[in-house]
Design brief:
Structural class: mainly alpha
Order of helices and strands: HHHHHHHHHHHH
Number of helices: 12
Distance between the termini: 27 Å
Largest sheet: none
GO molecular function, one term: ABC-type transporter activity
Main location: membrane
Organism: Amycolatopsis australiensis
Membrane topology: Multi-pass membrane protein
Shape: globular
Pfam families: ABC2_membrane
Length: 244
């Protein structure tokens, strides 16, 4: 990897996004708006505090997956990626450049959603705000990394969206958001244990419930970060110049 080339890719992506205000608004504001909607759907601070920590991870994960997969595919179908790969730039430089760009957006996205939830919507937090933000940002980066990875297997933007039921929805259903993982059958529990979103939701729930940073939270952080990194490496290995 060449840090200069990675940062150049990051600047290019951020410059492109600056000229696409609708995408920026979606990236930054939609998770916050969904949290506000959720608060008034339940109309109860206690219920909101119970489900909101998990959704602080789920909403950014989902949105970053969609944006990253479609953006990467668009660059391939418009031959932008093909032109870039004629330059002396490595695949990891490209993908980590994307990761830094979307990571910067994820920080703003998650900070806004968490700030509004904590100081306006009444989310009860027993642990560290900083740790909550770190876990939620890692979850957004996981969604971004998976989006970059699956974009290599799609030929159109519609196909990229079709990967969401395969890579995203099962994780949302089995992460413990609707039913505690311990109450699931053995097969569903096993599937939940191999899905990284389960560990992000578990870490967010433990941070909001306790001020103690225990071994389970640290394990969950390592698993989520490791899965994001693995998805980026796999994305680099399957990266093609263009879609046939």
């Amino acid at each position: 990897m060449n840090p200069a080339l990675t940062l150049a890719t990051t600047r290019r992506i951020l410059t492109q996004l600056r000229h696409d205000p609708r995408t920026v608004v979606m990236l930054v504001l939609v998770p916050t708006l969904l949290m506000v909607l959720l608060r008034y759907v339940f109309d109860s601070a206690a219920v909101f505090s119970h489900v909101a920590p998990a959704l602080l991870g789920v909403f950014p994960f989902l949105i970053m997956f969609l944006i990253a997969s479609i953006t990467t595919l668009r660059e391939r179908t418009t031959a932008t990626l093909e032109r870039l790969m004629t330059l002396p730039i490595g695949r990891l430089d490209l993908l980590f450049g994307y990761a830094l760009a979307f990571g910067a957006i994820a920080v703003v996205q998650v900070a806004l959603a968490a700030g509004v939830s904590l100081w306006w919507l009444g989310l009860d937090l027993a642990g560290s705000v900083v740790l909550l933000l770190v876990i939620a940002v890692l979850d957004a980066l996981l969604g971004m990394a998976l989006g970059l990875f699956v974009s290599a297997f799609a030929r159109t933007e519609f196909q990229a969206i079709q990967f969401m039921p395969v890579f995203v929805l099962p994780q949302i259903l089995l992460c413990g958001l609707f039913v505690p993982r311990g109450d699931m059958g053995w097969l569903l529990r096993w599937l939940s244990d191999v899905m990284p979103l389960s560990y992000a939701v578990e870490a967010l729930s433990r941070v909001t419930a306790s001020s103690t940073v225990d071994a389970v939270i640290l394990r969950d952080l390592v698993i989520v970060a490791g899965c994001a990194l693995l998805a980026l490496v796999l994305g680099a290995a399957t990266l093609r110049r263009r879609t046939p």
